[in-house]
Write a structure and sequence with these properties.
The chain is of the alpha+beta class and about 350 residues long. The protein has twelve helices and 14 strands. The chain is globular.
């Protein structure tokens, strides 16, 4: 369904509300778009929280060259959306998420064959009809790059019946004829990936607990710190070892490695461990996340918990983390971009 701008904007904003409510998207991570014509689409902007978006914030982008007009920048993943719209004329709505279970499964770098005998335990027939016979996994590419966009398009081209694709170490992209279809794909993919995660780890997924019971926030001279005890963070802290980024948004917002220090650490131990990082683990006592503002510290804690869920699977399956060069580049680009946004008074993206 090709939309007029007003209807496209309304559907995008409603989709964003659903994604936030169902915890398939958080803060400024991910993006949503709708086709306006064979030549253009409307997409969410770069670095804006979904809870505050208005129709005026959405940006029309030309498919052929990804150009736009106006002062508001479109999502940095616009190239991926453009490539998918070119490839799939049946697709008029796209949702890119960093949803938790799909992101964790993405570290495997493997396609999910929903037609195989072994998949029957994780996928029902109606779910297979929603997702298609295979959920391909695109090769890793750094965030917002042409390489990532090309890898996603290549994966979807190889499996033309697929309605979604994993993006290794990154997240997922979900397609639909309209917003309802794309949202259904995103929810179904998360359910399937949750079942697959349990099958591969031999563990039940941890139930998320209320934020009031799993963290404490404090203000200090250098900003804010959150001490958090969410389930997968606790598992990693009990290992007592350095944790690496298994998801690229963790490398961006947190750092290229996360040391584990003893319980009841001295201020000197904390200072040394957090150098160049926004999170550290405390042996058997969760993790401490740092940022200049409380909402940013919470964002670090959210992504760290997701990274620890991915790490739990990766360590069991001997899957390597994001390679060190890519992790350093992701971190450097994020810090540079964040500094510019901070100067403008905007939030991190």
């Amino acid at each position: 369904m090709i939309y007029k701008r007003e209807e496209a904007a309304s559907r995008i904003l409603k989709a964003c509300e659903v994604l936030v409510r169902k915890e398939l998207i958080a803060r400024t991570w991910g993006n949503v778009s709708a086709r306006l014509s064979k030549d253009s689409f409307l997409i969410t902007p770069s670095g804006r929280a979904y809870e505050t978006l208005t129709e005026e914030d959405l940006v029309e982008v030309r498919i052929k060259n990804q150009e736009w007009e106006g002062d508001i920048k479109p999502s940095s993943e616009k190239g991926m959306h453009a490539g998918i719209y070119q490839l799939r004329p049946d697709c008029d709505f796209i949702i890119h998420t960093h949803q938790v279970n799909a992101s964790a499964i993405s570290v495997l770098g493997e396609h999910i064959d929903l037609t195989s005998f072994s998949s029957r335990s994780i996928c029902k027939e109606n779910e297979r009809e929603i997702l298609g016979p295979v959920v391909p996994c695109a090769f890793y590419g750094m965030s917002s790059t042409k390489r990532l966009a090309k890898n996603v398009v290549r994966a979807l081209k190889e499996y033309p019946e697929a309605q979604s694709a994993l993006m290794r170490y990154h997240g997922a992209v979900c397609l639909g004829e309209d917003d309802a279809d794309a949202l259904q794909v995103a929810e179904t993919l998360e359910t399937i990936c949750g079942r697959l995660y349990e099958k591969l780890t031999g563990e039940k997924l941890h139930t998320r607990v209320g934020s009031g019971t799993n963290y404490q926030i404090q203000k200090g001279a250098g900003g804010y710190r959150i001490h958090t005890w969410t389930p997968y963070i606790m598992e990693m802290s009990l290992r007592g070892k350095t944790v690496m980024p298994y998801l690229d948004d963790m490398a961006q917002i947190g750092g290229t490695s996360f040391r584990c220090i003893p319980q009841d650490p001295t201020p000197e131990q904390v200072k040394a461990a957090r150098k160049g990082r926004n999170a550290i683990f405390v042996r058997g006592d969760g993790a401490i996340c740092f940022a200049e503002r409380p909402e940013e510290a919470k964002a670090v804690a959210i992504v760290l918990e997701k990274n620890c869920q991915a790490a739990n699977l990766a360590l069991k399956k001997a899957i390597p983390p994001v390679d060190s060069i890519s992790a350093r580049l992701e971190r450097a680009v994020y810090l540079k971009k964040y500094a510019k946004l901070k100067d403008k008074g905007d939030g991190a993206c």
